[in-house]
Amino acid sequence: MAQAPVVAIVGRPNVGKSTLFNRLVGKRLALVDDRPGVTRDRREGDADLLGVPFRIVDTAGFESDDPQTLPGRMRAQTEAAVAQADAAIFMIDARAGVTPLDETVAQWLRGSDTPIVLVCNKAEGRAAEPGIMESFALGLGDPIALSAEHGEGMGDLFTALLPYIDREDFEEEPEDEDDPDRILKLAIVGRPNAGKSTLVNQFLQEERMITGPEAGITRDSIAVDWMWPSPEGRFRPVRLIDTAGLRKKAKVEDKLEKLSASDTMRAVDFAEVVVLLLDATRGLEAQDLRIADHVLQEGRALVIALNKWDVAEGQSALFNGVKGALEEGLSQVKGVPLIAVSAATGKGLDQLLGAAFETRDAWSRRVSTGVLNRWFEKAVEKNPPPAPGGKRIKLRFITQAKTRPPGFVLFGTRVDELPMSYQRYLINGIRKELGFGAVPVRLTLRAPKNPFEGRKTSE
User: Fold this and answer.
1) Any known ligand binding at 71?
2) Is residue 161 within 8 Å of residue 87, measured between CB atoms?
3) What is the per-residue pLDDT across 187-209, written as a single tens digit (0 to 9) for each?
4) pLDDT by residue (tens digit) across 77-99?
5) How many whole angstroms separate alpha carbon 9 and alpha carbon 329?
6) Is 26 marked within a binding site?
7) Which of 24, 71, 116, 198 fits a disulfide with 343 by CB distance 3.0 to 4.6 angstroms?
8) Is 1 part of a structural domain of the chain?
9) Do the bridges between strand 116-121 and strand 222-229 make them parallel or antiparallel, or are there none, so unpaired?
């Protein structure tokens, strides 16, 4: 199956690239704010323009800074995006007209082998007309006037892009949830500077994410599709999702950081397995436990990675200490996988991916009603439910209602009085004895309807 055609959006900061990206993907995926420089890493999404599917890439605003600075590293990501694209949209702000930086970007694009479509954004109203006329001098062909915010001019954009995105050999296939080789949606979360972007780069063996000593470089959640060469010799598809660091809520005051945190939470909801990355040089902190608890509350499968293992001191004591603290702090789920890794050197990464696939298998597991109830009868016989007030709670049978995460329905009489301790006993038994491991398990209690309820009694 051929890959989807790729289109990159480039331009100086604050011309509306992320607004167009969001319109093409049909969702508010990219963060949008009035201040320049919000987008830093390349962000990709599945776009559709008048029925033609393609991949769209949002890039950081092009700035002419030193390559070693953060803006310089951002520019390197933009240059890589254009080089790998089938076509690029060069966007300018029609109301501001052509700026010296626009001319610099245009000069660079004219030397590129990638086809360029020139777009004048914010073109609604007569104030944009002078800027549109100026753009002819950029030497990139006739400009397309559009408004990314209001959706005007999208038909003209479609006509210009069609020669590069219309591929007869590309057709999207629906995902089969029962296919063991389906793509693993893997989100990497953690506190700022835990090494999340470095980990993604180590997986990909390329500088795909911007990294550096500055805290909070990543703002958007960035998804990248990748094939993992597993130790068994199989290539397994993975969608890696790098996210912004999560600080304690009380410390987050900046609007943009709040948007980034919300974006990370949406990435958790989208993922199947979430890797919580800890900094081995700082150990386990209360914020790590809050993040882990949120992941489990959302019903996602969780794997914990202890990063920077190559520079950690007292490794054995550190590992056992973190493991013990996790057992105590995540009492609702015992035995969450804990893997020591180094994003800098690549240590433990195959073990981490292996644990992620195994955890997803447990998260997706379904048990037949017969096997489930044979286990259930033995569990109840071994430890019968209590009899509050001297009245028995009768548990009749159990069935699995859903997967991803696993959900079970328990039927019986007076189940509303079943203590939480007994419910935990059943959930722990399901995890331990039926192969669900350390994944979140939901248990719903149901009582059969009283056939006489609502009837009038005879006098």
Assistant:
1) no
2) yes
3) 999 988 888 888 988 998 887 66
4) 788 889 989 999 999 999 999 99
5) 44
6) no
7) 198
8) no
9) unpaired
